[in-house]
């Protein structure tokens, strides 16, 4: 039967052998396709090939190439100068903990030097690649994972060709300046990291002695107010510093070694080793706040489990068992500060720590 659609074009439907309908293809307009049909073509598209190569100015004019070469090695030499400037700035503008202005000066000039060192290498490498290195398009054909000996030998030849095309072996000024820049660039980092460590002293000896001494009162951080044993309730924790630390000229350095966490647990829960029976007072214990992994401040006390947690790398210490390590990368317990009370009920230290505080990688006797 015939059907007249809204566009006035006739479509014919005939009964199929299976009782369905089929379209008479001769009556369907060839240029009109509905939105619900997909057209699939078996035609293979021709390979368009590579676009015509456009030569750069430096490829056509030797003078331009020489100018580009001078610019490249000048940038590399500028990088060397930046590295040297960063080292000089670090020494010329030392940081004084009590002078915020010294921190700003050190940061500004050190940053300028490192920026110059990085920028010189980056801009020089990019400028070299864009103006002087080989500039011909190519097609890489994928090969099996294990190439034949002939192909592998060809790979060696390609490296040689790359050297020739880049001019790395031929352009000695560029090569030498780049090598110099790469050698000089890490030097500021070496100087900076070296400055973080103790100078001309054995680390274990420095960390073996803090401001804690017999009779020194435990005071609250940062107020410096002394704390009584009666102020420390069961399950509580306090950040503690030695008495007089806030008035010390090297306050920050001393605090980095002497900071302590003070907690009170049920005395019956404490497992005390021989010789440490008098190191706590009625369940009040004090441990170094400096993690024995890399020196981060241990600052989280879990009241129910009596665990101390270092937020940096999740080292976990058990207060009930003399802060032994129960999880994480730390390799030894937190050093314990022996404490007691004076005649007025204030908590005091019995002595300094009996072992070096801080990270375990320091040399220890």
From TrEMBL:
The Rieske domain, residue ranges: 279-348
Annotated Pfam families: QcrA_N, Rieske
Protein origin, superkingdom: Bacteria
Family the UniProt entry places it in: Belongs to the Rieske iron-sulfur protein family.
Main function: Iron-sulfur subunit of the cytochrome bc1 complex, an essential component of the respiratory electron transport chain required for ATP synthesis. The bc1 complex catalyzes the oxidation of menaquinol and the reduction of cytochrome c in the respiratory chain. The bc1 complex operates through a Q-cycle mechanism that couples electron transfer to generation of the proton gradient that drives ATP synthesis.
GO MF annotation: an example: oxidoreductase activity, acting on paired donors, with incorporation or reduction of molecular oxygen
Transmembrane feature ranges: 72-93, 105-126, 178-197
InterPro entries, A to Z: QcrA_N (IPR045603), Rieske_2Fe-2S (IPR017941), Rieske_2Fe-2S_sf (IPR036922), Rieske_Fe-S_prot (IPR014349)
S-adenosyl-L-methionine recorded as keyword: no
Keywords: 2Fe-2S, Cell membrane, Disulfide bond, Electron transport, Iron, Iron-sulfur, Membrane, Metal-binding, Oxidoreductase, Respiratory chain, Transmembrane, Transmembrane helix, Transport
Main location: membrane
Protein name from the UniProt record: Cytochrome bc1 complex Rieske iron-sulfur subunit
Region feature Disordered, mapped onto this chain: 1-65
Keyword presence, Iron-sulfur: yes
Membrane-topology descriptor: Multi-pass membrane protein
GO cellular component, one term: plasma membrane
Classification of source organism: Bacteria, Bacillati, Actinomycetota, Actinomycetes, Micrococcales
């Amino acid at each position: 039967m015939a059907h007249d659609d809204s566009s006035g074009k006739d479509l014919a439907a005939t009964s199929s052998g299976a009782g369905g309908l089929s379209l008479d293809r001769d009556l369907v307009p060839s240029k009109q396709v509905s939105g619900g049909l997909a057209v699939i073509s078996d035609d293979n598209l021709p390979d368009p090939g590579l676009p015509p190569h456009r030569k750069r100015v430096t490829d056509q004019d030797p003078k331009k190439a020489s100018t580009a070469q001078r610019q490249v090695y000048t940038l590399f030499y500028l990088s060397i100068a930046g590295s040297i400037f960063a080292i000089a700035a670090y020494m010329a503008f030392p940081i004084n903990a009590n002078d915020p202005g010294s921190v700003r000066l050190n940061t500004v000039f050190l940053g300028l030097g490192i920026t110059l060192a990085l920028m010189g290498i980056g801009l020089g490498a990019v400028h070299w690649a864009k103006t002087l290195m080989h500039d011909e398009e190519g097609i890489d054909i994928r090969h099996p994972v294990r190439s034949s000996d002939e192909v592998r030998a060809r790979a060696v030849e390609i490296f040689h060709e790359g050297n020739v095309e880049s001019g790395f072996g031929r352009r000695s000024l560029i090569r030498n300046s780049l090598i110099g820049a790469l050698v000089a660039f890490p030097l500021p980092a070496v100087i900076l990291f070296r400055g973080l460590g103790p100078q001309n002293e054995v680390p274990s000896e420095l960390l073996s002695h803090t401001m804690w001494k017999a009779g020194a009162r435990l005071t609250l951080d940062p107020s410096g107010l002394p704390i009584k044993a009666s102020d420390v309730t069961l399950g509580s924790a306090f950040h503690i510093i030695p008495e007089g630390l806030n008035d010390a000229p090297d306050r920050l350095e001393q605090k980095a070694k002497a900071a302590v966490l003070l907690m009170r647990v049920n005395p019956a829960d404490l497992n005390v080793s021989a010789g440490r029976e008098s190191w706590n007072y009625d369940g009040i214990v004090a441990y170094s706040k400096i993690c024995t992994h890399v020196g981060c401040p241990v600052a989280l006390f879990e009241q129910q489990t009596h665990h101390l947690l270092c937020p940096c790398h999740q080292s976990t210490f058990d207060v009930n068992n003399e802060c032994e390590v129960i999880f994480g990368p730390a390799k030894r317990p937190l050093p314990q500060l022996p404490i007691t009370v004076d005649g007025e009920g204030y908590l005091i230290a019995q002595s300094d720590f009996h072992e070096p505080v801080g990270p375990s990688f320091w040399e220890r006797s």
